[in-house]
Amino acid sequence: MLAYTYIERGKFELVEKPRPRLEHPRDAIVRVTLGSICTSDLHIKHGSVPRAVPGITVGHEMVGVVEEVGAEVTHVRPGDRVTVNVETFCGECFFCRHGYVNNCTDPNGGWALGCRIDGGQTEYVRVPFADQGLDRIPDSVSDEQALFTGDILATGFWAARISEIKEEDTVLIIGAGPTGICALLCVMLKRPKRIIVCEKSEERVRFVREHYPDVLVTGPEECKEFVLAHCDHGGADVVMEVAGAGDTFRLAWDCACPNAVVTVVALYDNPQILPLPDMYGKNLTFKTGGVDGCDCAEILRLIEEGKIDTTPLITHRFPLSRIEEAYRIFENRLDGVIKVVVECG
Ligand SMILES: [Zn+2]
Ligand SMILES: [Zn+2]
Question: Among 35, 200, 229, 311, which residue's CB has the most CB atoms within a 10 Å radius?
Answer without folding.
Answer: 35
